[in-house]
Amino acid sequence: MPELPEVEVVRRGLDRWILGRPIETVEVYNPRSIRRHTAGPLHFAEVLTGRTLLAAHRRGKYLWLPTDGGDALVGHLGMSGQLLVQPPDAPDETHLRARIRFAPDDGRDHENRELRFVDQRTFGGLSVEPLPVPGNAVDHWDRENVPPSIAHIARDPLDPNFDPDAFAVALRRKRTGVKRALLDQTLISGVGNIYADEALWRAQLHYARPTESLTGPQIRRLLDAVRDVMLEALEQGGTSFDALYVNVNGESGYFERSLAAYGRADQACPRCGTLIRRDAFMNRSSYTCPKCQPRPRRARW
DNA sequence: ATGTAATCCTGTGAGC
DNA sequence: TGCTCACAGGATTACA
Hints:
CATH superfamily of the largest domain: MutM-like, N-terminal
CATH topology of the largest domain: N-terminal domain of MutM-like DNA repair proteins
Structural class: alpha+beta
Low-confidence stretches: 238-253
Number of helices: 7
Number of domains: 2
Radius of gyration: 20 Å
CATH architecture of the largest domain: Alpha-Beta Barrel
Strand content: 15-25%
Mean pLDDT: 85
CATH class of the largest domain: Alpha Beta
């Protein structure tokens, strides 16, 4: 599943390949993939046509691309979404939901690639939304230019303006388990089930540990773990930047090779050899090492 | 304020 | 072989 590192890989691909040329056509094949766009998929296509995408920004798992019209193309990949930059003659993908074609770049037709939104489970979606302060974006961390549907999303751990102390205070104020808090995108964004489990394993914390009982050093260790695991995943996912293809399938190499806990039920913990255990958690799964991450006496989840 | 459960979806694989 | 069912899970919504 695309979490922050995968989405950042996509952002870099979009930043490199699809900015600066007017959109010529927009085709929507599944209206469900146009979400939050209250005026509907037809309007989505209409308003986007003729616009030029100026930049590619990200917060947590959300992407947004400001246009020369003062609004932005907003995207979330959900569980199975991909944004692919493809040559026009590439065969349509099975779950192709939308296609955006750009005006040719005189004489350089070989670079005239199109943007495709592919999404098997259609939990992801695209929309066009107004930007509060148009045309003012300095970098992709700029808070003032966040579209309305992303306004409630907290800064993510790779954002230079992410405030660890404020996070620690907000975290301890919550009366919940630490993993639930990690997955709360209004507290910290970009963390999904996979990286939550990996970070907790690295920080040697159990998912049901009550947030208010966490010490300052433990929170710092946890944050470092979140950042490290994401940066490592990003390094490995980054190898596909040159491929004229934006890799988003949630299998950034890292996925298969480097996971210590997630998805490894009944396999040896890389740190101590104890068998990793799988618990039901929030309609999904949590993976822990019973020895490195003992369940707290007062558990909360 | 916080927790719980249902909802949205489809491909995969296990079990019968 | 073919059916059924559990499962994967992010974000939002409704309800407790």
